[in-house]
Amino acid sequence: MKRIVVALAGNPNSGKSSLFNLLTGAHQHVANYPGVTVETQQGYCRYQDHEMVVVDLPGTYSLSAYSTEELIARHFILEEKPDVVVDVVDASNIERNLYLGTQLIEMGRPLVFAFNMADLAKRRGLVFDLGQLSRLLEARIVPTVGNKGEGRTPLLEAILQTAQEGSKTRIHTVPYGDEIEEELSRIEKAVFQWETGLGETYGLRWLAVKLLEQDEEIVARVRHREVLDLVDKSVRHLRGIFRDEPEIVMADRRYGFISGACQETIKNSVERRHDASDTIDAAVTNRVLGLPIFLVLMYAVFWLTFVLGEYPMKVLERLFGWLGTAVSGLWPVGSESWLRSLLVDGVIAGVGGVVVFLPNILLLFLAIALLEDTGYMARAAFVMDRLMHKIGLHGKSFIPMLIGFGCSVPAIMATRILENRRNRLTTILVIPLMSCGARLTIYSLLIPAFFSPHWRGPVMWSIYLIGILLAVVCAKLLRLTIFQGETMPFVMELPPYRVPTPRSVLIHMWQRGWMFLKKAGTVILGISVVLWVLANFPKPAAQELAGLDAAQARQVALAHSTMGRVGHLLEPALRPLGFDWKIGTALLGSLAAKEVFVSQLSIVYAAQSQDDADVLREKLRADYTPLVGFCIMLFCLISAPCVATLALTRQEAGSWRWMAFQFFSLTILAYVITFVVFQAGSLWM
Amino acid sequence: MGKVLAERNQVRLLSAVKTGEKARLVHVDAGRRLNSRLAALGFVPEAEITVVSNGHPGSFVVVVKDVKMALGRGVAHKIRVK
Fold first, then answer.
1. What is the mean pLDDT of residues A427-444?
2. Which domain holds residue A147?
3. In what order do the strands lie in the sheet with A40-47?
4. B52–A490: do the CB atoms touch at under 8 Å?
């Protein structure tokens, strides 16, 4: 059985991910393709005895060196050399979509075009002569409707045939006109002579084209002055002739080629009319109405997650409680077993505490997927841009931040849509301030404990708002100091409004939700075990436990353990914040994984199981004032994000430095702010 | 008559084009990055730009190569058209 590697490329909004899902179905995951350091979405599918590995590249408009996503996409194609590249094209606006296609053609990998959204194209009155167009582009073209599931088999067939044919030399290349072709020829010869290695890896023509475009990445790879000088000369020569950068002229020629090919093969019988989309946009992006509409929608999103999520959450809580009891029951009553403790108090409590919030998080991701699939998200980014710009960020930054209210892990992944590196780093660093779903475990324990029903809503909102405000301030500070620089001016495609298919919305929701679950299953599980060890060893001698009941015994044991001792050590530092060693212990746990805070606290207070939340609350109320309760939440909100988030920051930001910076600065910030609030609050009350 | 023709071909900023009007791109006066990005999106010399909304009261929205795009603060001021 042969293995075929297929790369999916295409513009954003071309329906590429629906096609990816169509091809791979349930067999997909985010993975590291061997040898590649960047995480990409990968999936498998089997067709006629061949195993196809499908890699979903980031959606891009082009393959320049200007943005992370483009670099990821092009590295994969040039270095991993997939057997087939599928360019997913939105058939209802072919010309713009084929721009990327021309660049893919130049890269020389075997190519297949998927003319997606074929139904929309038909509705717009477009008629294609695919045979002729296929000949001009020298690649097979398959019409598909990704979100309805049409075209799968023909596409797989085309991929298979193309893979079997392998690399062919092209007859038609994108013609750039005599003057440019002449310079390209010169550069190709120079590269062949001086940079043979480079030429073999990437292909002479592609290199020459990139050099003439003054592509930063490629220019940096060239060692020999002779080549660079020649390129310089060519660029200046062409600048003189065209009174424009060669890069722009070449873009123009590409569109010329596309236009020519399309004119011969596509008939458009319907003129673009001012439609319903435009009317909605007039309201939604309106200078006066836009922001209020946006805020109403955001409120609806959060309402959905909190109110609707309530019931499934209770169900899950009960389920994990039952699970804990069931596992516990496997051992005879009264027996002491470290394994039982590990499983029930460590694993089930730890992981359960996280998974309980899955409904909440999934609902948020569902709402976001809905907003994205209908097309509203682009408009929202535009509306937010005016505000974001004031703190130095791009309108698009709001999307990862919104996702951050569910879980930081998919949120940081989402920052890839930001092209400006400084922008992206700033956003990554402040995402943890968006109170994530995990922190909800802490709020839902503490808020009912300290505040009357009347106050609960406002207190919760205030925590969220404080997080947002802090994020704004920090982002601004970062942009004024470390990450100075111009933001990319806002240019964003406004896709036509669409009625989303349930299938695609659910898949988008699940893709992000899965990241959260994976985090729970791996990192949180690991941390829970580590913390369980720290909280249970070393054990006190038998005589210390004489005469105490089970709950009190556990309390003593905790004080005796590593965790307890460190908590005691830290107490002097925590007193100014209103905390004691018990809170300190729980906070230690939460520095590694937010969710574990609650289970740690319940151990400290010798509560027996999850169901004793009210008992725990009573004890907390007895020990602390509402001010302290609020301060605890404040500290948890701001302080260091969970291990999974840190790990992802390191990955996406590229170095340990940023991860450490995020960890320390947020913790220090948390300390300072909680200190101020507690001290001021105590004086006042 | 000659004056009318000259006016129609007069070079002006995209931001000056009224809602519903069309124009052809002359040049983008911006840094390499924005220039390149816009070119990839279809803003090449002689490309037809239709102004769907000039920004009062909405955002600046155009159609280029059949695709609708929102342009933010100042981008429309950097594009010369005729």
1. 88
2. 2-165
3. A28-31, A40-47, A50-56, A2-10, A84-90, A111-116, A140-143
4. no
